[in-house]
Amino acid sequence: MPDPIERLAEMQRGDLPVHGGRTLAYVYDSGDPEVDRIAREAVAAYAASNALDPTAFPSLLRMENELVGFACDLLDAPESAVGTVTAGGTESILLAVQGARDSRPDVVRPRMVLPATAHAAFHKAAHYFGVEAVLVPVGPDFRADARAMAEAIDDDTVLVVASAPSYAHGVVDPVGEIAAAAAARGVRCHVDACIGGWVLPYAARLGRAVPPWTFAVEGVTSISVDTHKYAYAPKGTSLLLHRDAGLRSPQFFASAAWPGYTMLNATTQSTRSGGPIAGTWAVVEHIGDAGYLELADSAFAAVDAIVACIDAEPALRLLVPPDSTLVTLATDASCDAFTLTDELVSRGWYVQPQLSYGDGGPSIHLSVSAGTHEHVGELAAALAESVAAAQAAGPVAVDPDVVAFIEALDPTALGDDDFDGLLAASGLVGASADGGLELPGRMAAVNAMLDVASPAMREALLVAFLDRLQRPAGRHPREGAR
Fold first, then answer.
1. Residue 204 confidence (pLDDT)
2. How many beta carbons lie within 10 A of that of residue 334, not counting itself?
3. What is the pLDDT of residues 156-167, one digit of tens each?
4. Residue 330 forms beta bridges with which residues?
5. Lowest-pLDDT range, 56-60, 83-87, 112-116, 451-455?
6. What pLDDT does 472 receive?
7. pLDDT score recorded for residue 429
């Protein structure tokens, strides 16, 4: 039998690198190998532990409480504040929405007011929990329109949301005005700081201009902050903090309506591996407050250098000056954004393309971490080369017949035949040997095709695509079976 560890190493060669500062989405690299060593050993030591019952594994409870305590200090939380360790930013957001809904049993059709730039996890929460998402357009600076959000609050509103920063554009919403409007109506205000919560406090200490957004802002009732992002901890942990225990209470679930143990959960999960909790605690202990200040300094130095690189390329422009570590750029007509993405990937730099939305065209997103700082010179060279290559290649054009095919499809009734027809018409992807899908090496044409589709059709196509990707593999008849 082949060694499974060797097989893992072989399979992993096809993945994006998680170290080296070149993957500017999905992973966050401190640049310190010792952080990775400590994380791995802590995760392994607690891989079999279960945070389901805090009385059975009190060490995990202590770690969780200490992580919450660290975050409380970071986020200007009052002495009354409480918090929960979750499995990631999406779970933190889900719980914030569920808790807000369940805090108002008198509201038959609950609503939450979101800026249009709020993370898609809020839409997922709306779908799961039956809370209507009321989307409010943002201003030309991509920040939430506080006045419009205040006007959208009504008697059925159970939650108002702000971002610190928004993922797509990296800017902090006017939390003070939004929270004040929510408080005036007696409504909870959640700040989604999943991606900025562990780095913006240090940005302020470094003298960078950061709009107020923490619990120091009156009216903010809860904040989500991910530790598997800029705390540089293992995937996946996040924290959901509430201003007081009464606000958190509806989040808890208990059930004695069966003959087994009385179920008692603080999150959507019951069994929770102790590995990520221990890994996160160990990393935070190792880096510490002073270490995070240094890492933030490196990350922001990288951001400033990347902004300078973009300014130096006439074909590129910043969509908006970043408030945090997220940089979003756009291209002019001479340089196709999706082709530029492919060119950067081919040179070892993974950046994230963002499709057109509303009146805005496609853009490119970079999540910059401390590990990128020492490689910015290499990124500058790759960016210049990639722009030249994208300009030489010219824009990506979607065949008019394919556009017509997409426009004729009904996203609510997309079937296998429709999806297969689109694959055949586009010539972009085909069946692999195991019945799945085989992607082309470059994704510009795929992204261009998605870009001409409506948001609803993009969702339908990508759901169909995911369904094809996730099919059983490695199935073999059992010995002796006939």
1. 97
2. 12
3. 999 999 999 999
4. 317
5. 451-455
6. 83
7. 57
Rounded average pLDDT over 394-416: 89
Largest CA distance in the chain: 72
Q: Mapping DSSP to helix (H, G, I), strand (E, B) and coil, where does residue 449 land?
A: helix
State how far the Cα of 273 lies from the Cα of 49, in Å rounded to an integer. 6
Give the CA-trace dihedral at 270, 275, 280, 282, to 10 degrees: 140
CA distance 461 to 475: 27
Let me know: does 340 contact 386? Beta carbons within 8 Å. yes
Cα(114)–Cα(138) distance, rounded to whole angstroms? 10
| Residue (of 284, 237, 279) closest to 69 by Cα position | 284
- Mean pLDDT within 393-415: 89
Take residue 22 and report the two structure tokens written for it.
């070149």
Q: Which of 472, 444, 450 is nearest to 462 (CA)?
A: 450
pLDDT in the model for residue 482 = 46
Q: Count of H helices and E strands in the chain?
A: 16, 15
Tell me what the pLDDT averaged over the chain comes to.
93
User: HSE on the CB side for 152, CA within 13 Å?
Assistant: 24
- Contact between 193 and 166 under an 8 Å Cβ cutoff? The reply is no
Starting from the edge strand earliest in sequence, which strands make up the sheet with 82-86, in order? 82-86, 238-242, 222-226, 188-192, 157-163, 111-115, 132-136
Q: Using CB atoms within 10 A of its CB, is residue 10 exposed (0-12), middle (13-18) or buried (19+)?
A: exposed
- How far is it, in rounded angstroms, from Cα 158 to Cα 109? 10
- Looking at 166-218, list the stretches that DSSP marks H as alpha helix, in order from N- to C-terminal side: 175-184, 200-205
Nearest to 309 by CA among 368, 357, 395: 368
How many beta carbons lie within 10 A of that of residue 37, not counting itself?
Answer: 11
CA–CA dist 217, 385 (Å, integer): 45
How far, in Å, CA of 265 to CA of 268, rounded?
Answer: 7
Helices 121-129 and 89-102 cross at an angle (nearest 10°) of 40
Q: Is 307 helix (H, G, I), strand (E, B) or coil?
A: helix
d(CA 171, CA 318): 12
CA-CA distance, 2 to 341, in Å (whole number)?
37
How long is the chain? Answer: 482
Answer whether 379's CB lies under 8 Å from 365's CB.
Answer: no
Q: What is the pLDDT of residues 216-246, one digit of tens each?
A: 999 999 999 999 999 999 998 999 999 999 9
